[in-house]
């Protein structure tokens, strides 16, 4: 950061936040490709409540071609998500600083909350398509991306592209608020141990995203189960949660099945994204 008051940043500096957010997320697409099988393994555990070895066995039997079925939406979403999330958070933070004489520690979190709300509106359709493609039970009647889009276009928004919109909004808004609220203070603590700025940013991004992923993991499981199917009996959030909780035998341990793999994915993607973004912001400042 430059040390200048946020309210005095010029429009070009705020544009850099959008550019750097997109760039950092784009550069992290390679790790996304590498860990996509991990993500898909977690998804199978979320949907079918299977142990990790059984989920890996399912993917192995399906073969390498189907292993990367559904990888396009998260790659596109990662790049656009970084652009919107970091850029919009910085824009909202600027507006908050203009309406307040003092920059408080709560403002980054509040701006992150607002950015998370917009993020949910924009990216819920991407997540919906991704979850339909990753569900192996859809391979026969929805074999291609085009077939999935045609089917979702025929549905109402609430049951089609915006299925599970409410839990996604809650997850993204709270997650973004925690990320932007904790990232800076945690980075300062890590930097106080004598580590370089890049390493400090990486560690702070990793630890922050790890904590958020674990705290909000049950919501992600709920979203995956709500979005995996197209058509049929469309139930509300409360009914779906009751069905999910019952299917997990009312066990928190079973509900968190696959959670350890989420930690691994968060360590790789958000750690790298945070380090690259903070470095670019510092160089442009």
From TrEMBL:
Entry superkingdom: Eukaryota
UniProt-listed InterPro entries: MCP_dom_sf, MCP_transmembrane, Mito_NAD+_Carrier
Compartments it resides in: Mitochondrion inner membrane
Listed GO CC annotations: mitochondrial inner membrane
UniProt keyword list: Membrane, Mitochondrion, Mitochondrion inner membrane, Repeat, Transmembrane, Transmembrane helix, Transport
Assigned protein family: Belongs to the mitochondrial carrier (TC 2.A.29) family.
Main subcellular location: mitochondrion
Molecular function as annotated in GO: NAD transmembrane transporter activity
Name of the gene this protein is made from: SLC25A53
Solcar repeats: 103-189, 196-283
Protein name, entry field: Solute carrier family 25 member 53
Gene3D superfamilies hit by this protein: Mitochondrial carrier domain
Keyword Transport among record annotations: yes
Membrane topology note: Multi-pass membrane protein
């Amino acid at each position: 950061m430059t040390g200048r008051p946020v309210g005095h940043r010029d429009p070009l500096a705020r544009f850099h936040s959008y550019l750097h957010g997109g760039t950092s997320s784009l550069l992290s697409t390679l790790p996304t490709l590498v860990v996509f099988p991990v993500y898909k393994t977690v998804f199978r555990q979320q949907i079918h409540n299977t142990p990790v070895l059984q989920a890996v066995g399912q993917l192995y039997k399906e073969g390498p071609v189907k292993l990367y079925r559904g990888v396009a939406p998260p790659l596109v979403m990662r790049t656009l998500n970084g652009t919107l999330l970091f850029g919009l958070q910085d824009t909202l933070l600027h507006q908050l600083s203009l309406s307040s004489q003092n920059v408080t520690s709560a403002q980054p979190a509040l701006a992150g909350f607002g950015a998370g709300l917009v993020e949910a509106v924009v990216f819920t359709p991407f997540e919906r398509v991704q979850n339909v493609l990753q569900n192996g039970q859809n391979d026969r009647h929805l074999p291609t991306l085009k077939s999935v889009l045609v089917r979702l276009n025929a549905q109402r928004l609430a049951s089609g592209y915006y299925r599970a919109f409410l839990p996604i909004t809650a997850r993204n808004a709270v997650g973004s608020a925690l990320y932007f609220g904790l990232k800076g203070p945690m980075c300062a603590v890590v930097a106080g141990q004598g580590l370089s700025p890049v390493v400090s940013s990486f560690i702070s991004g990793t630890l922050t995203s790890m904590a958020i992923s674990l705290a909000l993991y049950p919501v992600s499981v709920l979203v995956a189960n709500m979005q995996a199917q197209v058509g049929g009996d469309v139930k509300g959030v409360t009914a779906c949660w009751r069905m999910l909780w019952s299917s997990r035998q009312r066990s928190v341990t079973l509900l968190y099945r696959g959670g350890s793999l989420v930690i691994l994915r968060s360590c790789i993607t958000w750690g790298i994204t945070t380090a690259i973004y903070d470095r670019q912001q510092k160089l442009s400042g």
